[in-house]
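Repro:
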Amino acid sequence: MDLVGKTVILTGATGGIGAPLCRALVDAGATVLAAGRNQQRLDHLQRELPVGRVHGVVAELGTT
């Protein structure tokens, strides 16, 4: 799948397979809007990956 120039919304970016999936998406050329509950983990992803390729959003997307 060609992700160069695409933007992907990734939920659950701070838990489980979220961070590795975020890295893989960026490696495939995507810019990632990463949503998760943990601000520190989102900050880490943004520092670890190329500038401007990951945009973290703290969000609880579960249902009630």
